[in-house]
Amino acid sequence: MDWRHSRPLRISFLLIVTLIALLGILPYFLSSDLVRDQLIMAVQRDTQRKLDIRGSAHVVLLPRPAVLIKNATLTEPNDSTVFAHADTIKMVFRLWPLLSEQKAVARSIEIERPELTIIRHEDGSYNFEDLLQNKGQLIQVALDRLTFSDAQFSWHDEFLNQTLNFQQFDLEMNDLTDPKKGALDLNGEIFIGNKGESTLWRGQIHGSGAMRYIEQERRLHIANIKMAINQNGQSDDQVKINNLALQITGNLNYGWDPLRLTGGDLKLVGSGRRSGQNWQTTLDIPEIKLTSTSLILHRLKVDVEMQDKNTKFIASASIPTLSGAHSQLLQSNAAKISVKYTSPEQNLDVLFSTPLIIERGTITRLPNYRLTGSYTNRSLPRGAVRLDLTGKGDLDLHNELINLDSNGTLDYEALRAQIGMESFLDPHFRVNIDLAKLDLTPYLPAVAAGAKNINEKNQFDFWWLNQLSAIGSIKVGELVLNNLHIDDIDATLIARKNRLVLDPLKATLYEGQLSGRIEINASKDIPYFRVEQTLSNMNINTLLTDTFDTSRFEGRSNLTLDVTATGNNITALRKSANGKIKASLKEGAIRGIDISGLLSAASQQIKLMNGEIKKIDHSAGKTNFSELNATLILKNGVAVNDDLIVSADVLKLKGGGTLNLNAGTIDYAMLASANPKVPELSGLLGLSLPLTFRGPLNNPVFNADTANLKEQIIARQQAEAAAKTAKIQAAEAAKKAAAQAAAKKKSAPVKKSTTPNKTAPTKKTSPQKAK
């Protein structure tokens, strides 16, 4: 009989198919509210979470028992905060545990368009672990398949204080219970940024791996991990990262109840561009071991390389073992960190040997480091400055902060340095440096034999100021630059945007005290300089000997100067110098001329030779003075003075002149007058000796105009003779006039009066009364 034409068989087959269909669709029409209520009650009882199902909830029996839920929201335990929301959830159960033991064991979960907030707490636990536990819940989990379609969720790590956001994210885990076929695939968008704020960075993530879930041991193994993260578009201006690419490979092992990473190995290779800088980094962790209380990383290596058009920075760290409580500190007793920085301007090569402490994943502490290495730059081309320091330091990767507190030696001289840096992209430094001595002479450009001065036309090189942003203090016990010595330097430093200010600046300069400020502004094509200084009690002789190679002056100098200049070299600075200088010297001398001797000789010769002055060479002598005062007005490199006064015991000088910095010359005219209280100079009272002071600044020529003094003497003698002659002549004239007057009076006749007497008659008296 052909069974295909058997009517009873066809009717039986149709009944079976109808029954199966009814068993599959019947739950859609029966007790959907009951299913919803039972699920809500079970979730509340087992997890203390609130389940809100605004859509439908159905039970499907065929082809496998399953629950279909639409538009569901789940809160955090005992909290109204939303943990997850999904448009559709399909949970498929294992048939045998349901039939034999009346247990609902989920073997597959498929979720469409979920929104989740995943939090990893500081102790390593997650905010969803209670959903994975099998402790009497209505629904237990033994997954063979888990999928998320078009998911959107955030992952916040409290330990690292970092949040990652995902969207359009597809995650598929298949054949988890198969020891050979389990697989993981993920794809989606990843971005950094809080809700309601602009996205700082966005990228695409792709990944795959082999999944091995061992149900009996409740362990999950993810092997052959291959994950790639590539940036999409431009990042926010705060981040300034472009073309970022990360590749992550390795193997991870998890315990399932509770969900914890237990070990594995990882390697991360990254590259990108940040504000004109190309970055590459490699993190290699060959062995990861975790227990319930500790984390151990073996043979950890980190390499970071940054390179732009002209500079290259390489940092490498090698850590044999890094261990500790994974919710607290990770420590290493011995780590080596190599740092190399190279550029056309400067080079730094140092090695840190140190214990290491890592806090919260982003803060690295160096509690007791030893730093050795060297530093060179193109301004100091001969040799490298050696560094040997010990100290402690901190590195905050999240906030981009570095702090180092060091003691040791720089070029074999004692050094204490506190250096802080903010921002890896636009570094700003905070410095406090105290150095016993710095002798830069061995490192400066070589000077030709016999040369005294540097080439004044060489361009200034402000490469060190171009990117310098710093604030702090600098102290140097002794600074040596060729022949120049400056002691006890104490300055407050401010550098920003190609501008450097030392204010206040104090130092001991050739036994005197210096106080004031210095400003350099190289933000424009032509640099600007300003010096405002007060120098007290400085030894002028040693200063001029070391700087101008002249020893013509002695004394203790007080200077007040406010000078500005612009230019790219010393010659230009001299031509543009403007300002005011007030000088005062105490107890000094002018070498090369003995003005006092000249005056004394002139006085003696005047007495002996009646005005004939014999020139005497006093160039080997010197002129001592008690005080010198002068004010110079500086304009375009030429200092003009008209109030020079030099006081000494035997003389006084007055005059003025010019100091031409452009030509390097001096031109002064002075008048020397004698002290009237000095007897041996009495012959010069009322006279003055003209003096000139001319020639190269380092070797001027003194000249005393004795001829002019002679002319003054002759003129005085002639005036005195004329006055004497005039006096005699006047006396003789007066005498003659008097004689003539007397003679004339004597020879004059006596005249009789013709006028009658009109007076009243007198009364006659008696002879008796007359007697």
TrEMBL record:
Annotated keywords: Membrane, Transmembrane, Transmembrane helix
Region (Disordered): 739-771
Extent of Low complexity compositional bias: 751-771
InterPro entries (UniProt xref): AsmA (IPR007844), AsmA-related (IPR052894), DUF748 (IPR008023)
Regions crossing the membrane: 12-30
UniProt domain AsmA: residue ranges: 450-643
Keyword Zinc-finger included in the entry's annotation: no
Listed Pfam families: AsmA, DUF748
PANTHER family cross-referenced by the UniProt entry: DUF748 DOMAIN-CONTAINING PROTEIN, PROTEIN ASMA
Protein name: AsmA family protein
Taxonomic lineage of the native organism: Bacteria, Pseudomonadati, Pseudomonadota, Betaproteobacteria, Neisseriales
